[in-house]
Amino acid sequence: MPLSPDDVAHVAMLARLGLSEEERHRIGLQLDVILEHISALERADISDIPETAQVGNLVNVWRDDEPAPSLSQQEALVNAPDTDGEYFKVGAIQE
Amino acid sequence: MTTQTVGLGVDSAYEAVIGLEVHAQLLTRSKMFCSCSAAYTNAPANGNCCPVCLGMPGVLPVMNRQAVEMTVRTALALDCEIPAFTKFDRKNYFYPDLPKGYQISQYDLPMSLRGHLDFTVNEERARCGITRVHLEEDTGTMHHAGDVLQEATSSLVDLNRSGVPLMEIVSEPDLRSADAAREYLVRLRQLLMYIGVNDGNLEQGSLRCDANVSVRKFGVSELGTKVEVKNMNSFRAVHRAIDFEIARQVAVLEQGGALLQETRGWVETRAATVSQRSKEMAHDYRYFPEPDLPPLQLGRELVERIRSELPELPEARAARLAEQYGLSTYDAALLTASREDADAYEELVDAGVSAKVAANWQMGDVAALANQHHRSLVDSGVGVVGLATLLRLLEDGTINGPTAKELLAELYEHGGDAALLVRERGLGQVSDRAALTVIVDEVIAANAQACEDFRGGKAQALGRLVGQVMKAAGGRAEPALVNSLLRERLSA
Amino acid sequence: MSCAGATAAEMAASLRAGQTTPRQLLDHARAQLSRLDGRLNAFLAHTDDLADRQCERAAGMLADDPAGAGPLCGIPIALKDVLCLAGYPTTAGSRILEDFRPPYTATAVQRLLDAGAVPVGKTNCDEFAMGSSTENSAFGAVGNPWDVERVPGGSSGGSAAAVASGMVPISYGTDTGGSIRQPAALTGVVGFKPTYGRVSRYGLIAFASSLDQIGPFAQTVEDAAVAYVAVAGHDPRDSTSVPDPVDDPVSALQLGVDGIRLGIPREYMGAGLEPGVRDRVSEAIAVLEGLGASIEEVSLPSTDLGLSTYYIIAPAECSSNLARYDGVRFGRRVERPSLTETLLRTRGEGFGPEVERRVMLGTYALSSGYYDAYYRRAQKVRTLIAREFDSVFERVDALVCPTSPKVAFTMGTIQDPLEMYLNDALTIPVNLAGLPGISLPCGLSRELPVGLQVIAPRLRDARVFQVARAYEQATQWHALRAPMVASA
Ligand SMILES: [Mg+2]
Ligand SMILES: [Zn+2]
């Protein structure tokens, strides 16, 4: 089933991708083709097959609760587009 | 509107259904997935962060074992089951205080399931089911320029708190009143502090509580429309907010209205819950297994080891203390309110102070001083050992009550050795019969009117005379002896 | 010696014989780079001051203890620009990270620095490693040294081109669905993707966390083995890093293939293969048989589901991994009056079309109501694919097949995303199962390189090198240089 323009807009909003209408249209068509191909998975017999989220059989990988020095405030902020010298600065939240 | 207890009267046609979601920061030394300090308030803004908790590209989480163990400890204290297999998942959403754009949390296979917490509400025993206890990471914090969020022109982001281990304790919707919800929270907080996993600070948000509140007509089994109430940062706020919300929902239904499934925030200054209607299309968190963290298999051995390390829990301890030391249920509960208090009490008794004296002093003068100085007994100048010494001096008659009281106040603030002070200052009580008789005779001679009154049947006149004798004896006279000497001489 | 095109092993020998110095090797690398990179665009940044410092360091190490200095000491290398290098620009080929300088160095890179390797620069790649042609870089496409009008493959196209053009003997890339092996095949060099978990991902800008692995490009299998060993091994900063000791691929190089059982997966030799690719690979199989390997046709029936599985799992993970690019703490930000608008524009303008496509696809596959149909199903098929490899490896020691169904194509000729994705059909299953795989040159088709792929069971990385080295020794394809290099 092809994606409706609303579906595409909804997914773009979930992903916080600001796309133009033209981009949404194009991506929508491309996703339709890709999803059509992906529907091949429906052929697979996966009854009783467990899911693989990661390969390897590692479990209980953890570290001891030892603190270590952090970055300085200046190091933390150095890559930020906007700060007030102490905080990361962002625009108004309008919910 | 002052103390609002609108709630539901006994004759109400409605029943409230409440479940609490409690988030508790764990008292680990380092953060959940990086080695930054978990004591995040000690640094300047964004001075307690590393590439991992800043969510920088290419860096990876590494689990804090202690946080896992503390969560298991909590789950066991709440009688939860610990499944053999658990994993972390990503909860995806965008917010400036969430650096990675996802929170590492647990979704379908949490660390523990199906427990319960018992408590007493309005003198009745109650039990609330625990749905799950899981582990996740805290977010950073935001400061908004201007105090009204909607009118702020910019916001400031501090990521010092980002990545602090956070335990989420979800209850079943078993609570039926604001009283029950508050009592559940009081007991849960006490438990978390008892087992040393959380500092219990609701005001500063290291313990946070959200409530899911709905109402339904009595006898109806389906749940009503659920409203999530947030932003309650004291027991009082929890109580008031839930009461308000119940009344609001009943009012809406009574007026034939329909309730909206929504999130509402408690606004203290308005004494009301206010819709936070985030138009954000019904949250779609797109949970999926965290590929950067292998799952956990907490074997029996680990779980049993943690279980064996659990301290005696508050309810059991109160019961034992009542039984062992002949305390009233009320006193036992008070003395076990915190693990520190209960430990102090048992230490006093073990040090030879009688159970009754230890209880009276701890609940009386010590509690008052702790309040006055914002300093617990353990952290005070006198300490538990010093208090034991002092109370033994009292009990063996070396000093009298008023002297003990004065000394305690001094030692609590400034510290020192009680026995030494008593010797140096000659505070030992005077029990020398001959010496006291001289003073008693002098007081009788100088207070003819009071003697007359006493002999005339006014018993309270004796108190005045006792006071005079004590004063003349520098406060150190043994009160019982003074009493009996006075009676003796006056009736002679 | 002539340095352009020399192998790292040759350079290391010359260094120890006192015939050259790290400085001279660096100068040669820089000369080749400035001569050719105008046409190739393989590098996004030069790390000149770091290279100079590493030269000094390497010279010191060689002087102090020539035997103890490792095989990469003093050797010029190049790093894909998804590998973080503290204080240097690290863009992942994306506008959104144009000015980003990480305050940390990837574990793999740190190991190279500690070994005395000399990084000359950061190489171009598809944006966030998403692509099969390096045309998706925000900073321009990379030319194939065999024909600059053609693509070098991707996403590690810059690293492949840097080795294929003789600028450096060794470079590093990352492989999520074939991003080392496919460009190695298309540029006629060796490219190795280790067992998942063998090389730490700490400091590797994530595309798809459960699939990404760092690995080397080199001109010979021996160089690739040495380059792999230099970065392999457990890292406590990557929880998915394998703690077992690394089996030694260098000593495995001499073992040969006599008595080795090699499987030829039927599904990898089927439709879609360019005839020249099929012929070269068949010839290579015959060579291996001649060396004493037993050859057996095997079947991996779910192979054709690999692409679909991958194009759910990788986008799903990437949609989450790329959520951190919000213009708050780092990266480019496009300011708008409201926070949400700022976020939308920052990401809309910061990401290129392929990244947007995959973020959209992954977001959709995880979204409410579609998770079971897409993501969960893909995870189950992933299990199926891994199990098929497991059962085949009960009968054979390694698999031999083509790396890419086609040789390098002309830039701009593949516009359809799905058609582009098909380039990775033969490499993707290896990532899904977390296996080690190598691509090495096995001749030409239409005068362009063809890659032979060798795949082994998990943690049997050494066996991949063993088979590849046996083939390489029996043939001369690895000595064939791109015309651009020969005309030096
Ligand atoms: Mg939570
Ligand atoms: Zn940190």
TrEMBL record, chain A:
It is an enzyme of class 6 (ligase). GO terms for biological process: regulation of translational fidelity; translation. Its EC number is 6.3.5.-. SUPFAM superfamilies: Glu-tRNAGln amidotransferase C subunit. Gene3D superfamilies: Glu-tRNAGln amidotransferase C subunit, N-terminal domain. InterPro entries: Asp/Glu-ADT_sf_sub_c, GatC. The keyword Protein biosynthesis applies. Keywords: ATP-binding, Ligase, Nucleotide-binding, Protein biosynthesis. GO terms for molecular function: ATP binding; glutaminyl-tRNA synthase (glutamine-hydrolyzing) activity. It catalyses: L-aspartyl-tRNA(Asn) + L-glutamine + ATP + H2O = L-asparaginyl-tRNA(Asn) + L-glutamate + ADP + phosphate + 2 H(+); L-glutamyl-tRNA(Gln) + L-glutamine + ATP + H2O = L-glutaminyl-tRNA(Gln) + L-glutamate + ADP + phosphate + H(+). It holds the Pfam family GatC. Allows the formation of correctly charged Asn-tRNA(Asn) or Gln-tRNA(Gln) through the transamidation of misacylated Asp-tRNA(Asn) or Glu-tRNA(Gln) in organisms which lack either or both of asparaginyl-tRNA or glutaminyl-tRNA synthetases. The reaction takes place in the presence of glutamine and ATP through an activated phospho-Asp-tRNA(Asn) or phospho-Glu-tRNA(Gln). Belongs to the GatC family. Heterotrimer of A, B and C subunits. HAMAP family: GatC. This is Aspartyl/glutamyl-tRNA(Asn/Gln) amidotransferase subunit C. It comes from Candidatus Amunia macphersoniae. The gene is gatC.
UniProtKB/TrEMBL annotation, chain B:
The keyword Nucleotide-binding applies. The keyword ATP-binding applies. It catalyses: L-glutamyl-tRNA(Gln) + L-glutamine + ATP + H2O = L-glutaminyl-tRNA(Gln) + L-glutamate + ADP + phosphate + H(+); L-aspartyl-tRNA(Asn) + L-glutamine + ATP + H2O = L-asparaginyl-tRNA(Asn) + L-glutamate + ADP + phosphate + 2 H(+). Keywords: ATP-binding, Ligase, Nucleotide-binding, Protein biosynthesis. InterPro entries: Asn/Gln-tRNA_amidoTrfase_suB/E, Asn/Gln-tRNA_Trfase_suB/E_cat, Asn/Gln_amidotransferase, Asn/Gln_tRNA_amidoTrase-B-like, GatB, GatB_C_1, GatB_Yqey_C_2, Gln-tRNA_amidoTrfase_suB_CS. Its EC number is 6.3.5.-. Belongs to the GatB/GatE family. GatB subfamily. Allows the formation of correctly charged Asn-tRNA(Asn) or Gln-tRNA(Gln) through the transamidation of misacylated Asp-tRNA(Asn) or Glu-tRNA(Gln) in organisms which lack either or both of asparaginyl-tRNA or glutaminyl-tRNA synthetases. The reaction takes place in the presence of glutamine and ATP through an activated phospho-Asp-tRNA(Asn) or phospho-Glu-tRNA(Gln). HAMAP family: GatB (MF_00121). This is Aspartyl/glutamyl-tRNA(Asn/Gln) amidotransferase subunit B. The gene is gatB.
UniProtKB/TrEMBL annotation, chain C:
SUPFAM superfamilies: Amidase signature (AS) enzymes. It catalyses: L-glutamyl-tRNA(Gln) + L-glutamine + ATP + H2O = L-glutaminyl-tRNA(Gln) + L-glutamate + ADP + phosphate + H(+). Residues 31-464 form the Amidase domain. Signal peptide: none annotated. It holds the Pfam family Amidase. The keyword Amino-acid biosynthesis does not apply. Keywords: ATP-binding, Ligase, Nucleotide-binding, Protein biosynthesis. GO terms for cellular component: glutamyl-tRNA(Gln) amidotransferase complex. InterPro entries: Amidase (IPR000120), Amidase_CS (IPR020556), Amidase_dom (IPR023631), AS_sf (IPR036928), GatA (IPR004412). The keyword Amino-acid biosynthesis does not apply. GO terms for biological process: translation. Its EC number is 6.3.5.7. The active site is at K80 (charge relay system), S155 (charge relay system), S179 (acyl-ester intermediate). One of its GO terms (molecular function) is ATP binding. PANTHER family: GLUTAMYL-TRNA(GLN) AMIDOTRANSFERASE SUBUNIT A, TRANSAMIDASE. Heterotrimer of A, B and C subunits. Belongs to the amidase family. GatA subfamily. Allows the formation of correctly charged Gln-tRNA(Gln) through the transamidation of misacylated Glu-tRNA(Gln) in organisms which lack glutaminyl-tRNA synthetase. The reaction takes place in the presence of glutamine and ATP through an activated gamma-phospho-Glu-tRNA(Gln). HAMAP family: GatA. This is Glutamyl-tRNA(Gln) amidotransferase subunit A. It comes from Candidatus Amunia macphersoniae.
